[in-house]
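Recap from last week: sequence in, structure out.
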Amino acid sequence: MRLAFLGTPDFAVASLSAILAAGHEVACVYTQPPAPRGRGHDLKPSPVHAFADSHGLTVRTPASMRDPLEIAAFATLNLDAAVVVAFGQILPGGVLDAPRLGSFNLHGSLLPRWRGAAPIQRAIMAGDKVTGVQVMRMTEGLDEGPVLATATVRIDALETTATLFERLAPIGADLLVRTLADIAAGRAVETPQAREGVTYARKISPRHARLDWTKPGAMLDAKIRGMSPAPGAWFELPSEKGPVRVKALLSAFEDAGGVPGVTLDDRLLVATGQGAVRLLRVQREGRGPQEAEVFLRGTPVAAGVRLS
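Predicted structure tokens:
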């Protein structure tokens, strides 16, 4: 089929690669404009943009797909279908309805649970045991369209957003390509979403990343893993020169008790409002991520230290 692909992060690259390998014609790739990245904050293209450039594909980076000029340009592509994977913008009806067969989205949850911007992160943060990817027909309602295909996966006890993204990306890419073949052949079946069980996956804000040790340990463990690697849940470690900010990137819940925020041993077991959290991977401000045992060689933390 003749397609447009709309996507931005690494998660979407696997789908674009699979679409090309399946022999579809990608008339145009749409992605978010270059943004500041890295320590130098230089403007750099998105992962999808870089991949598309390396394959000689036409790329557009509109600030808004609601711009009438962009809608008109999209209509001139004469598409069979549009494919959206973590694009980062809400598409207007004029874009969704332009392709002959419609527009389709690969979504990272089991709808109607976790509609919205951050489904993979929110599933981990909520303590969900199962999630997945689905292909749905896009409508103007937020992730409300009928579902064409589903693949489910279990969320492991030490799952982070990074590892779940890595697992779901190829599964979603394969599901998407198989579904596109069904759409092209006219054999795809669309199932309306259930009206019950709707939840919304709000965008993750760094403002809410600080750890409150008075909260239950299971909740904090899920927050740490759901916010890893970005924005990174964090706490402050006391030092002679003042508090040092440390990100917690991997953790595990343990059944232990104590004063919330106080370390229970010299291996970063921290008491919480209910139970305790073992910090397994951390990142001191200005440094790279480290396994806890490596971090503790340079920054020993004894039992009885209060974290804030």
